[in-house]
Design a protein that fits this description.
By secondary structure, this protein is of the alpha/beta class. About 35% of the residues lie in helices and about 25% in strands. It contains 17 helices and 25 strands. An eight-stranded antiparallel beta sheet has the order 3-2-4-1-10-9-11-15, covered by helices on one side. Strands 5-6-7-8-12-13-14 form a seven-stranded antiparallel beta sheet. It is globular and about 75 Å long. It starts with a strand and ends in an 18-residue tail after the last helix. It binds 5-amino-5-deoxy-1-O-phosphono-D-mannitol.
Length: about 600
């Protein structure tokens, strides 16, 4: 989604802001722009396409110590220069993340006041409306305090006002951080934009207003200055760099074994450590897991684990549906929200609905200090570091790991897992990083070559393997643009099998011994109709047969964590196929890293 950076300080604002925008490229965007002040005059540069197109338009000899920049992911109005940010109306220049839902009504008011609007965006209307109020108030803080009662929807604004030398920011339901440097200060929608310059920051909360000078940051709430805690990013800058890999996605796939090892070391030293970090699950008799995209797929794996190891009913739902459903809560319900970014609009809204109903919430989040992390009753961080590739890999895997910890802890608390079983299970976790490492190093280029020209690829599995199929299919379609569907293996013959013809690739996952025979029968059904079967199978289930064309045998661990090794070939297949197709792997078309609008 859109990205924001603002700068005031000793260095050339144009250079710092361009650099920050490059760090935000991963969020997904279709146009970009920068506004700076030079000799008290606002200069705006905009372009459609990549930041390098914007760079061609900028004269970097222009000196400026203050400015704002934006990468736009179009929501209102098509992708063109007029619709891209920054917008300037009257004395106000701003960039915006979020959506102003009542923009149509505000637009009519502005038209009556003779405002000339050029774009199709809600943002220009917000800019015009702020100008309209400011012309009456003559005080930008008074104006920014007013908009909270006028603008419906979500916003993070970075604002320049003609004839002063401050950088202003305010937000509602769209993230913004204010970062502190030496004789320079920043604001940004995301940590990577400024990580190169500083790791000291304030989290701006809803309706707070920040006023930045190069050597001072003031934050106001309800018109009064407040003191906020200065926080430190614990991200290693390395996690936001490519470090020699061709793509962030490949780098992030490669980081997984080490990240898994360190989370295991934090949570699984012994039973006491695990239980101390977890809520008391005994009081819940049902769990709702709510999330979007890959995080939802992780939730589906979590359902199998929690139901199996803790004998507790779990419902998993996509957040954009959950938030509008009739919900059947009782006091013994726990709502678990899973989100890498911690800012996904639908997941955040679902969390808030649970809280309004006085239901306990638990968040599984990667980004420290994100809205979901802060608003949940309890948060478990997965410690994946910065995830830059739009297609999630390491965060998904660590979500699976955290869900396995939850299933384990719940099983112990409910006295379904005794000490000796715990010790046995722990041994499997100790072996896991090495097994993952072996999978990461597996060469799947040849298999990818055999299927990358296909138009349709199917994934099948049963139970937990079906949940993994969904993630494998999503990974493939989002980065390679090949149409793909994941199906419960037993469901194919109820319609979809009609699409299987000679050489249609079917990737079949078999790690669950309880339904091994059934899944193999389903694989034989597609093989006998000519499918090109790529079998991903746990070693202990592997037998020779004539029902597959390619076979990937993965080392067996324990059903709590088998999925962490089984997912890696799926990630690598998607990566290698997208590579062969020449796709923009880290920044797939139309997608955004963090989906902060409904
Ligand atoms: O930040 P979140 O985990 O809440 O994001 C949820 C989805 O938008 C995300 O997993 C998306 O599906 C990924 N692009 C998948 O790779």
């Amino acid at each position: 989604m859109c990205g924001i950076i603002g700068y005031i300080g000793k260095n050339n604002a144009l250079k710092v802001i361009t650099d920050g925008l490059k760090q935000l490229e991963y969020r997904g965007y279709d146009s970009a722009g920068i506004a700076i002040k030079n000799n008290n005059e606002i200069k705006i540069f905009k372009s459609v396409g990549k930041i390098k197109e914007l760079e061609k338009k900028i004269d970097y000899t222009i000196q400026s110590d203050i400015g704002i920049g934006h990468t736009r992911w179009a929501t209102h109005g098509s992708v063109n220069i007029t619709n891209s940010h920054p917008h300037k109306v009257g004395s106000i220049t701003l960039v915006h993340n979020g959506i102003i839902e009542n923009y149509e009504q505000l637009k009519q008011e502005l038209i009556k006041k003779n405002y000339q609007l050029k774009s199709d965006t809600d943002t220009e209307i917000a800019c015009g409306y702020i100008d309209y109020l400011y012309q009456k108030d003559k005080n930008i803080i008074t104006t920014l305090n007013k908009i909270k009662d006028i603008f419906k929807g979500s916003y993070a604004f970075a604002i320049l006002v003609d004839n002063d030398n401050y950088l202003y920011a305010t937000r509602k339901d769209s993230p913004l951080i204010i970062a502190k440097g030496e004789n320079e200060n920043y604001l940004a929608s995301d940590v990577p934009a400024i990580l190169k310059y500083t790791n000291q920051y304030y989290l701006l909360d809803n309706y707070e207003i920040a006023i930045l000078e190069k050597d001072n940051i003031k934050i106001l709430k309800d018109n009064k200055e407040i003191k906020k805690e200065l926080l430190t990013f614990n991200y290693n800058i390395e996690t936001s760099l490519k470090n020699g890999y061709d793509h962030f996605m490949l780098k992030e796939i490669n980081e997984q074994d080490k990240l898994v090892e360190s989370l295991i070391n934090i949570y699984l030293q012994d039973k006491k450590t695990l239980l101390n970090k977890m809520p008391d699950f005994k009081k819940y008799n049902q769990i709702h897991i709510v999330a979007c995209g890959s995080a939802y797929h992780a939730g589906l794996v979590g359902k199998y684990l929690i139901e199996k190891y803790a004998n507790t009913k779990v419902y998993v739902e996509v957040a954009s549906e959950y938030r509008y459903n009739k919900l059947f809560f009782d006091k013994k319900t726990l709502v678990i929200i899973i989100s890498q970014s911690g800012e996904t609009a639908d997941s955040l809204a679902s969390l808030r609905i649970a809280k309004e109903n006085k239901i306990d919430t638990l968040a599984i989040v990667n980004v420290y200090g994100s809205s979901i992390a802060r608003e949940a009753s309890k948060t478990l961080y997965i410690n994946a570091g910065c995830e830059i590739a739009v297609a999630t890999t390491k965060a998904y895997t660590l979500q699976l790991l955290m869900l396995s910890f939850i299933a384990l802890a719940m099983g112990i608390q409910k006295e379904l897992i005794d000490d000796s079983s715990f010790e046995d299970i722990k041994k499997y976790y100790t072996k896991l990083p090495q097994l993952m490492h072996n999978e990461i190093k597996r060469d799947l280029k040849n298999i990818a070559k055999n299927i990358y020209k296909k138009n349709n690829i199917f994934f099948i599995g049963r139970g937990i393997d079906y949940a993994l199929s969904l993630e494998g299919s999503l990974k493939l379609k989002e980065i390679s643009y090949i149409h793909s569907e994941a199906y419960p293996a037993g469901e194919l013959k109820h319609g979809t099998i009609s699409l299987i013809e000679k050489n249609t690739p079917v990737i079949a996952i078999v790690t669950d011994e309880n339904i091994y025979e059934k899944t193999i029968s389903n694989i034989k059904e597609v093989a006998s109709r000519g499918a090109y079967v790529i079998l991903i199978i746990s070693k202990h289930l592997d037998k020779d047969g004539d029902f597959y064309n390619e076979k990937i045998v993965i080392e067996n661990t324990n059903s709590l964590i088998n999925s962490l090794t089984a997912i890696i070939p799926l990630q690598l297949l998607a990566y290698n196929i997208a590579l062969l197709k020449g796709c923009d792997i880290d920044k797939p078309r139309n997608l955004a890293k963090s989906v902060t609008v409904e």
